[in-house]
Amino acid sequence: MFRKTLTLATAALLTATAVAQSATPVPPADLAEARAIFKQLIEINTTDTPQGNVTTATQAMQKRFLDAGFPAADLHLLGPNARKMNLVVDYPGTDKSEKPVLFLCHVDVVEALRSDWHTDPFQFVEKDGYYYGRGTQDMKDSDATVVATFLRLHREGYHPRRGMILALTADEEGGKSNGASWLVEHHRELVDAAFVINPDSGGVELQNGKAVVADVEATEKVYSDFQVTAYNRGGHSSLPRPDNAIYELMAALNKLATYSFPFELNSVTREYFTAMAKQEHGQVGEDMRAILKTPPDMAAAARLSALSPDFNSNFRTTCVATRLWGGHANNALPQTAQANVNCRIFPGHSPEQIRQQLIALFGDSKLSVKYVSDAGVVSETAPDRQAMTPPPPMPEVFKPLDAMVQAIWPGTPVTPIMEDGASDSIYFAKAGIPCYGFSGIALERGDERMHGQDERLPIDSYTKALQFMYGFSKAVGDE
Prior knowledge:
globular, Aminopeptidase, 5-stranded antiparallel beta sheet, 16 helices
């Protein structure tokens, strides 16, 4: 096997060559193509709504690959229904004894209302040094960088030693047709890989424009929705009572709003805050060092939690009400009121454990707390599944990744993180394939707008991400 005969000097030379290439600005023609791809993806509505259609986006990318000369046999457009077709692109390697690397990219986005935004969320708007549009941070930016990278490498006649696969998938953000899960279950042969790079998480944190840390997802929380319902006999609205269903539900949600789940650290978050403590100064640095002690300083944890929602989410399970329904008529006391409570569960705890904790917290027999699956199925109990186990730090991933980070953001430490949300990595981790989350996208702390109003991405961040993905793909392909 070629890999076994590589000398350390040769391996170092390959990585250094890729780094040198990545440090060169993206050629203008390639940059223009990458911008056009990004624009095209943003302006295709891929929400899980009647107006959205994932297949429109995957077909558009399939056409780009076909027009570029990719063999039709290497492009697989498939899925469970006509609106949720996934695209799998095979970029074969020369060493058939090596499994390929899979780049996992979802193309669906969260719904955005025009009335909530200052621009049309489904128009690609460039202003003040930013690209605006739904998906500019989550994650059509990374979709476009990987598509553009594959097209550029093919145009240059690049033949990787290790093959590469790109999967553009549906319903990571919700819906009944999760593409990653469907591909693993029904077409494992198309996505079977040595490891997965998932740009849906990880990236470079900026503070006042300076890169301070490059985050690589090593584990993630468990996503769970719970349906909280209050019931009451109702009555005429001219005879109000304090025990109506809406008041009972709001009392429970107010308890949730002021409740903090217990402080926790695991091996990944401990390593992250150990690295961050070396970067931070003053009270923040002192508090980071204090939470790492045994026992941890709870006052320091409270200060850090109050300082940053990111820190707070790294310390514990979090739950928040995201939707409300109630009542049946304007002139009647509500008989039913309901809320969706969304939880991101700290590794080591199951959805059923958290459901039981919510029941105990609310302490109201007139409330029910039921689990809602990703497909929207409501059940009396929740699964006992746990979070993904952190994979080992594979040299074929981290050596080129660290080299690329140093080439583009010199002196920036590469540190494993726990993803505060959840991603499609879990489906491949369950299948025994190591998953690593990193995008090459650099964002200013506090300007994370994914799922929110006026989502935007700095133009410079997109350009550097293209540099990163191009060099990293070549380095991984040659590793």
